[in-house]
Amino acid sequence: MKDHPQLPEDEKEIEALLLKQAPKFKARAPINLESSILKNIQEHSKSSSKRKSTFEWKFIASAAIILLGVSFLFYKNNQVISQSEYRDDSISLIQLIQDNMDSVSADDFDQQKIAQNILEPLGVTAIFEDFALLTYQPEKK
Amino acid sequence: MNSSDTDEKIIEECRSQSKDWDRYFSILVSRHQEALFQYLWKKTRSIHNAEDLTQESFLRAYQKIDLFDSNYKFKTWLFTIATRLCLNQVKKKTPDSNAEDILDQEAQKESTETDFGLWEKAKLLNEDQYTVLILKYSEDYSIQDISKIMDKSENNIKVLLYRARQALTKHLPQFQEIKEKVTT
Fold first, then answer.
1. Which among B114, B134, B168 is the end of a domain?
2. Is the ipTM of this complex over 0.95?
3. Strands, E, within A16-102: which ranges?
4. Domains in chain B, number
5. Within this chain, do residues B149 and B79 fall inside the same structural domain, yes or no?
6. Which residues of A touch B47 (CB under 8 A)?
7. pLDDT digits (tens, 9 = 90+) for A78-121
């Protein structure tokens, strides 16, 4: 052979024998082999396109559900935080005002004065948009 | 495109047009199914396994056609897929499948000729040596192509071939009669 131009004699004989016997060394192929290969490919092709479209729909539906879920959770979470923060801050503020009420007369009970006379000296710098708190009327001592 | 085009041309044109791909792929199936089946039968010696592996090889080729490099021959690529599938099957072999093989071989003994001369002895070699012999002397592949199919270096293939031939020389006396016919 070209790959081994100078083979020993016995190896040449082996080569010659293998080559001579090669044509007989075969099996009878199934008659419908070609058609079954093509059928197999066709079936796979159909099922894979079906799987693909099902997969796409499932993916879109899952993504939409996840997105909705996350949005809802985010919304709820924010709501809970803002409500609880508001509540906590409101209670603290009321407490602060009550504790320092001695230095505030009833006339001074407006937003600006609370800020100047009570909150700022205490280091409270938070700004409250909702001034529902300021409608709170403490009992006059 | 017509059916006399080379495999590589068919694949290339189909890729660019991506029309009637199934129809053109059937030309490739028609051209190579017999050779691939024979190769797989020689490797497995089971008609049932060879048929399954032939189907699986074509299916993989169909699915992975985008990975085919047109610089290579389609048949070589197809045989590479088949060789790897065959190797995987040997690794996965279960006791049940062995029993199936025995039944398959029994059925084959009844239906076909089973005296394949020196090739019977070749089957007793290790898997790699036997595969190299099939690809070289039965399928007529070059060392370069065999190295691609078996994913081994060309030197490795030459060593496997040398050892396979050496191992078979001890059986030569049994084939004295045939040998004389060959040399005359």
1. B114
2. no
3. none
4. 2
5. no
6. 27-28, 30
7. 665 565 665 666 667 667 666 766 665 555 556 666 666 766 66
